[in-house]
Amino acid sequence: MIDLHLIGIGTGNPDHLTAQAVAAMNHADLILLPRKGSAKSDLIDLRRDICARVLTGPTRIVEFDLPVRDASGTYLGAVNSWHDAIADAWNAQVTEHLPDGGKLALLVWGDPSLYDSTLRIAGRLKRWGMEIAVRVVPGITSIQALTAAHAIPLNPLAGPVTITTGRMLREHGWPKGAHTIVVMLDGGCAFEVLEPQGITIWWGAYLGMAHEALERGALADAGPRIATRRADLRARHGWIMDVYLMRKEQTDGA
């Protein structure tokens, strides 16, 4: 029996861990840390640093190479095949390091419930016959880190928020009827497809990390600054994680 804890670790700052997350890590028999290639070595280094700072007992740490997603074919097909490969990799590590069962922990950026597929991958293990109990420890999301960094409310007064992806924004434009949107998983600058008039943007990259970067302002002015800065940061670090919130002007309060 595998007792799998999916632990939200925030956006890279060890101070973002909850007391529940720290306890779950220390109660685990094994923590698996994925390596994502040399260009993203900062990500494994941050996980290593988090473990070094909070672990006080005999919890074992094992690193493994995360499968690479095939960019060919349809997006959903490629992602599903990639998730299958990740589940296979997890299964191999569990078979080797927890052959008699035990408590396994995976450290998830942000929160496992928000634009993260760890829960879906864990479901594959169940379908393939692994006896597993999944428990989720919530974490600070990049959205919370973004609004905190800019000291702004997430939602307009008594209004809704739409959370979407860069791919959806690029393919379909501004969501119909939305006033405030949050864009995640943007591989480029999808806001460039929008007519910028009347839109304000709040952008952040590497939120919570030492090299956190922030920009805000009218989209017409801030958009080009963000695009230039984003390219520079990506070239410098080899990877980038960013998120942004945009609002359209309204006349009945905010």
Automatic annotation (TrEMBL):
Report keywords, A-Z.
Answer: Cobalamin biosynthesis, Methyltransferase, S-adenosyl-L-methionine, Transferase
Example GO BP: cobalamin biosynthetic process
Ribosomal protein: present as a keyword of the record?
A: no
Keyword presence, Methyltransferase: yes
Quickly give the catalysed reaction: precorrin-5 + S-adenosyl-L-methionine + H2O = precorrin-6A + acetate + S-adenosyl-L-homocysteine + 2 H(+)
Q: Which NCBIfam families match?
A: CobF
Protein name, as recorded: Precorrin-6A synthase [deacetylating]
Which organism is the protein's source? Novosphingobium endophyticum
| High-level lineage | Bacteria, Pseudomonadati, Pseudomonadota, Alphaproteobacteria, Sphingomonadales
Quote the gene name from the UniProt entry.
cobF
